[in-house]
Design goal:
By secondary structure, the chain is α+β, with helices and mostly antiparallel strands. The protein folds into three domains: 130 residues, no CATH class; 76 residues, PDZ domain (Pdz3 Domain, Roll), CATH 2.30.42.10; 171 residues, 2-enoyl-CoA Hydratase, Chain A, domain 1. The chain contains 13 helices and 19 strands. The strands form five sheets. Strands 3, 4, 5, 6, 7 and 8 form a six-stranded antiparallel sheet that branches. A six-stranded mixed sheet has the order 10-11-12-15-16-19, sandwiched between helices. The chain has a three-stranded antiparallel sheet with strand order 1-18-17. The longest helix is centred in the first third of the chain and has 18 residues. The protein is globular, with a radius of gyration of 22 Å.
């Protein structure tokens, strides 16, 4: 779902072929999001604005949700059910909880309301920036630059209230500090951890995180930076590329954290043709976690029956056109593999391009678009999606080799990567 969307496909093609899409967005009159970035968001909450935001979210779902029957819900009745809770909300955070409780009744992926206190708000704003820029993005980001203070993790709060890391993006302060998937962040500088709030006003300064790792409690210093989502995900892809030596074979590894835009596919092809992975004997293609948005044609990279053309200029610089990978490949998936990445996983498995290793994908394969409403961002499923006639929503894709993740799955501790290396080193 952050992303420099490829402008070349038509809107209908993008909506139909990938679950993270570019589409029109609706902006409403709202306080500048820069105020929220100063930490004033919850404290400056106005109940009347909350009711207005709720009403606009409800109306947008009524008019744009992919199923006009709202999955058999009486949508006007749903409004009446949740409106009293909205009127009692005292902060943007409590309003978002009510709205998301209402949206969860739809039982649909790609349907959630995000606030400026969540990294996903900025990542999705960047993913849909092309459309949002034409329809009010500057009301939230006056200078047109989308960024947030952070360290480069993918995480979420559990029922216990603890924030558990599910992914550490390569080349970020989190990776440099040694944080791992599976770590639980309890506090930052001695106070409860907040994904955005803990780093506001602290860019370039050390923040000490209290981290639970297994039975250990660690104090991990980390230095937050100002993150621009697309640049972060692209740098993460490029930084992840490495060679793993095993049984005399050179196994290439790359992690595509976000696939919403051809920029990521071009970066992958460059790594394979001229970059760090060009001399690899096999490839581990990691599509775990992060955002989707991939196009089905990205699988053409592994179509061995089409030619690759190399073009060399007078200066001596060259590039490859229609790059193909004709060596063994394995794909890694898990419950955080979603959207267009699931379409790739489906095709990869169906057409037997290689082993699919890990755990079942999320089953989040509806086509979505974004709306700026009030001081938040609504991600809404607006079209159903079928792949080769099959509906993957709520089903997902199962691996050919199931391997559960470890408690702290990163690097050499990652059992899914280790299994892929073992499989490819025997190929």
């Amino acid at each position: 779902m952050k992303e420099a969307i490829d402008p070349s496909p038509s809107r209908r093609q993008v909506l139909r072929l990938a679950a993270m899409v570019m589409a029109c967005a609706v902006a409403t009159k709202a306080p500048n999001a820069a105020e929220a970035l100063k930490g004033e968001g919850s404290n400056s909450y106005v109940p009347a604005d909350g009711v207005s935001t709720f009403e606009k979210v409800w109306q947008t779902v009524r008019d744009r949700f992919y199923d006009p029957r709202h999955n058999e819900l009486d949508w006007p009745e749903v409004r009446e059910r949740y409106l009293p809770d909205v009127q009692r909300a005292t902060s943007l955070d409590s309003l978002a909880r009510v709205i998301n409780s209402m949206l969860s009744a739809l039982h649909a992926s790609h349907t959630r309301f995000y606030t400026p206190d969540e990294p996903e708000y900025y990542q999705l704003a960047d993913i849909f920036a092309g459309a949002l820029r034409r329809r009010g993005l500057r009301r939230a980001f006056p200078d047109g630059r989308i960024s947030y203070p952070g360290i480069g993790i993918i995480s979420g709060f559990e029922a216990t209230g603890r924030n558990t890391i599910t992914g550490v993006i390569d080349g970020t302060p989190a990776q440099q500090a040694g944080l791992r998937a599976g770590d639980e962040i309890i506090a930052a500088d001695g106070t409860g951890f907040e994904p955005i709030g803990s780093f506001r006003g602290k860019v370039g300064k050390s923040v000490v995180l209290e981290v639970h790792r297994g039975v250990s409690v660690l104090q991990v210093p980390v230095m937050p930076i100002d993150l621009e989502p697309t640049k972060m995900f692209l740098r993460g892809l490029e930084s992840s590329a490495r060679i793993i030596e095993s049984n005399g074979r050179r196994i290439g590894y790359v992690h595509v954290w976000c696939y919403a835009g051809s920029i990521y596919q071009r970066a992958l092809e460059h790594l394979l043709s001229q970059g760090a992975l060009k001399d690899a004997d096999a490839l581990i293609w990691d599509l775990r976690d992060g955002w989707g948005g991939a196009q089905p044609q990205y699988l053409d990279l592994f179509n061995a029956r089409a030619p690759t053309m190399q073009v060399t200029a007078r200066s001596g610089t060259s590039e490859f056109v229609n790059m193909k990978w004709r060596k063994p490949v394995a794909m890694l998936i898990n419950g955080g593999t979603r959207s267009g990445k699931e379409v790739l996983a489906y095709g990869f498995k169906k057409y037997r391009l290689g082993e699919l290793i890990g755990t079942r994908t999320e089953g989040a394969v509806l086509a979505a678009t974004a709306f700026l409403i009030g001081r938040g961002l609504l991600l809404l499923a607006v079209e159903d999606v079928r792949v080769d006639g099959e509906r993957l929503e709520g089903v997902g894709v199962t691996p050919t080799i199931e391997v559960q993740a470890g408690a702290a799955s990163v690097g050499s501790d990652d059992p899914q990567v280790s299994r892929a290396v073992a499989v490819l080193s025997r190929t």
